[in-house]
């Protein structure tokens, strides 16, 4: 038996080491298991995220497939409707042919000549009109198909041309030319609007493409190129909702809509008074004369074709440190356009002729020639009669003169004896 104070193991020590609450130190295996559990949880979360993303993509794919089916069904419906409309038009055309033929004989039955061959409708009309048993009125009716209104019939049955809609950028240059042309005549939109519409337009409050074409051909627009006129008229009148449409000169639109679009096409029309024009012209003459060599050399380098633009004029002045305002450049372009009538053909030579010393008094000479107001002539066809712009301007001038006289009378009355001064 060992001594109690010896080095043997006591019972209390044994009990302490074998206690159930005692935590064993973590071994390498335990740490590895814990790391694996954490990694597994991360992978599980990532897997769930991927599953959710896949479900979302599947829903998007189903949505796209549904939209494709709807579009295909819509396309097939439009195709069917187009086919049905075509067939209906063909049937209507056949009815019209039969209706014309029925006036000359039994519908559908071929007409034969002496040799038993079928006669064409025009040949039959010629032969029938020569028969002695036809009255003069009947002969006239028979010949009407052939000579009475061939152009109308051709237009009625001619296939309509499918065209692309006209966009604003398609007429950008033409719109700028219209703006310059109207500004040179010193006209406002209100004066133009009061003069260009025919009685039919004012009565029905509608405008056709054909009527708009006629307006653009005449004063104050004076457009000459047929293709350009048609393009602008189509842009103003046609409904541009569809990308493609069938061109028809009888297409119409409300006058209020046409007015609004026409105003945008015409652009801003500021009225420069004579003194402002005279000052600008004299300043530009001085610039061109004093800097003739530098300006001409720069513009020749920039404009190999011999035609200038507003930007060319501005850049040429900047290169020689000559200050020129946007308003002056605008006036310069207007005067060049007045001679060329083509915004793409503003002549370099004309520039130095207009703004030369010999033409320093050009505004005064032009004002004297105009006699104080632009003379604008309206020459519409009978169906498109409209009041003269010149007449309207004269009426406005008379009203303005009368208003000034009334104001002078009022000033005299206010200062006369016996009138109370408030």
Account of the 3D structure:
By secondary structure, this protein is mostly helical. Among the domains are: 162-266, no CATH class; 274-370, no CATH class. The chain contains 18 helices and 6 strands. The model is unreliable at 1-18, 104-119, 127-132, 372-387 and 411-422 (pLDDT under 50).
What would you say about this model in short?
This protein is mainly α and 422 residues long. It is built from 18 helices and 6 strands.
Q: How large is the count of helical segments?
A: 18
* Distance, first to last CA: 142 Å
Globular, elongated, flat, extended or rod-shaped: what is the shape? flat
Low-confidence stretches: 1-18, 104-119, 127-132, 372-387, 411-422
Report the structural category: mainly alpha
How would you name the oligomeric state of the polypeptide chains in this document?
A: single chain
Average pLDDT across residues? 76
The strand line-up of the biggest sheet is 1-3
Largest sheet: 2 strands, antiparallel
- Computed Rg: 44 Å
Order of helices and strands: HHHHHEHHHEHHEEHHHEHHEHHH
Name the beta content range: under 5%
According to DSSP, the number of beta strands is 6
Helical amount = 55-70%
Features of the shown structure:
disordered C terminus; mainly alpha; 422 residues; 6 strands; single chain
């Amino acid at each position: 038996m060992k001594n109690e104070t010896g080095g043997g193991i006591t019972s209390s020590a044994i009990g302490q080491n074998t206690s159930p609450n005692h935590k064993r130190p973590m071994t390498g295996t335990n740490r590895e298991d814990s790391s694996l559990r954490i990694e597994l949880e991360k992978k599980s979360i990532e897997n769930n995220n991927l599953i959710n993303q896949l479900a979302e993509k599947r829903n998007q794919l189903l949505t796209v497939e549904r939209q494709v089916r709807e579009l295909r069904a819509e396309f097939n419906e439009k195709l069917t409707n187009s086919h049905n409309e075509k067939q209906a038009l063909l049937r209507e055309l056949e009815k019209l042919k039969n209706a014309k033929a029925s006036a000359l004989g039994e519908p559908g039955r071929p007409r034969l000549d002496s040799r038993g061959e079928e006669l064409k409708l025009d040949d039959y009309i010629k032969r029938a009109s020569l028969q002695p048993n036809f009255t003069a009125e009947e002969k006239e009716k028979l010949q009407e198909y052939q000579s009475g209104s061939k152009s109308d019939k051709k237009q009625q049955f001619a296939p309509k041309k499918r065209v692309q809609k006209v966009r604003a950028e398609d007429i950008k240059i033409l719109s700028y030319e219209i703006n310059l042309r109207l500004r040179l005549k010193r006209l406002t939109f209100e004066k133009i609007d009061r003069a260009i519409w025919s009685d039919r337009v004012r009565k029905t409050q509608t405008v056709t493409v054909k009527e708009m074409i006629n307006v653009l051909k005449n004063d104050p627009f004076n457009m000459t190129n047929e293709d350009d006129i048609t393009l602008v008229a189509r842009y103003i009148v046609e409904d541009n909702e569809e990308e493609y449409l069938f061109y028809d000169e009888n297409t119409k639109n409300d006058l209020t809509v046409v007015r609004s679009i026409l105003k945008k096409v015409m652009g801003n029309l500021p009225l420069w008074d004579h003194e402002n024009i005279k000052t600008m012209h004299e300043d530009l003459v001085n610039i061109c004369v004093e800097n003739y060599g530098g300006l001409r050399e720069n513009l020749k380098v920039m404009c190999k074709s011999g035609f200038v633009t507003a930007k060319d004029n501005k850049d040429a002045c900047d290169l020689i440190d000559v200050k020129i305002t946007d308003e002056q450049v605008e006036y310069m372009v207007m005067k060049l356009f007045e001679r060329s009538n083509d915004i793409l053909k503003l002549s370099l030579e004309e520039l130095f002729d207009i703004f030369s010393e010999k033409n320093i008094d050009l505004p005064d000479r032009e004002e004297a020639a105009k006699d104080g107001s632009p003379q604008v002539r309206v020459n519409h066809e009978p169906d498109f009669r409209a009041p003269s712009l010149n007449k309207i301007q004269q009426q406005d001038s008379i009203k303005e003169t009368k208003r000034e006289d009334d104001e002078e009378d009022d000033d005299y009355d206010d200062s006369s004896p016996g009138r109370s001064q408030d």
